[in-house]
Write a structure and sequence with these properties.
Elements lengths: L3 E3 L5 E3 L6 E3 L4 E6 L3 H4 L4 H4 L11 H14 L2 E7 L10 H5 L10 E2 L2 E2 L21 E5 L10 H8 L3 E7 L1 H14 L3 E10 L3 H16 L3 E3 L1 H9 L8 E3 L7
Parallel strand pairs: 4-5, 4-9, 5-8, 9-10, 10-11
Antiparallel strand pairs: 1-12, 2-3, 6-7
Helix pairs in contact: 3-8, 6-7
Bound molecules: dicarbonimidic diamide.
């Protein structure tokens, strides 16, 4: 008597720079970095630093499409939010005092206290609100691993690959991708789902990820990731004959 056994899902391939990014949906998480009112809407942290927050809004629509697809496909979804405790005990003085902001972290702005956990402005924009079953990681730093449970969540879920979106490309996205790369994760950055207040930084930050043969990871437009996710599971060679079972 013989049986057939199904091999683990063959990896899907995304056309990416510097070469195809392969991933198994079961071990891949979508990581949405800091899509918060404080960065994307007027009256928040981003604007207080003198930035034109409208620069980031082109990321919203493609990211909505990616979220819909990964939710349908059952991938792990992790959102992050940069922010600090109300008593500022997790805010290094260097971060508080640096620069010439109109409103500093902890000051009261039109959307609540700037970059403080639990405030309206610190939460994720309505368009990309997390749904039940998704993780939300509050982080005091720019990277998602520093002083958070992010690494533990990835380990618990058996995640080895990250598809990364969010803002800003050259700050929190880059820091997280660099941290992830050093910890052995494979990272794909979705070029139209990450945003910067500075077009030049956006271009160069994406180049830096994929340069030198993918020094930090891969870069692709979301359309190519969505195409890979929708591609049919490999059929012909995904089942292999199992060894014959003999019984005495
Ligand atoms: C910044 C972030 N830019 N989320 N934070 O301060 O990139």
């Amino acid at each position: 008597m013989s049986e057939t056994a199904t091999t683990p899902t063959a990896p899907l391939a995304v056309s990416a720079r510097p070469y195809d990014f392969t991933f198994d949906p079961a071990t891949t998480a979508l990581v949405v970095i800091d899509m918060q009112r404080d960065f994307l809407e007027p009256g928040g942290f981003g604007e207080s630093l003198g930035n034109d927050v409208s620069q980031l809004r082109s990321t919203i629509q493609p990211l909505q499409a990616v979220l819909a697809a990964v939710r349908a496909a059952g991938l792990t979804v992790i959102h992050t939010r940069e922010g600090h405790l109300p008593d500022l005990s997790d805010l290094p003085p260097a971060k508080l005092h640096r620069g010439d902001a109109a409103l500093r972290i902890g000051d009261l702005g039109p959307k609540g206290r700037i970059l403080i956990r639990g405030e309206y402005g610190q939460d994720i924009i309505d368009e990309l609100a997390p749904v039940d079953g998704e993780y939300v990681i509050d982080k005091p730093g720019k990277g998602a691993f520093y002083a958070t449970a992010f690494g533990d969540v990835l380990a618990e879920k058996g995640i080895t690959s990250l598809v990364v979106a969010g803002v800003t490309t050259e700050v929190c996205v880059h820091t997280t991708v660099r941290e992830a790369n050093d910890r052995g994760f494979e990272c794909l950055v979705l070029s139209d789902c990450v945003g910067s207040y500075f077009p030049e930084f956006q271009r160069v930050a994406l180049e830096m990820v994929a340069a030198q043969g993918g020094i930090f990871g891969w870069v692709a437009p979301s359309a190519d990731f969505l195409a890979a996710l929708a591609s049919p599971a490999p059929a012909a060679d995904s089942t292999v004959p199992a060894p014959a079972v003999t019984a005495s």
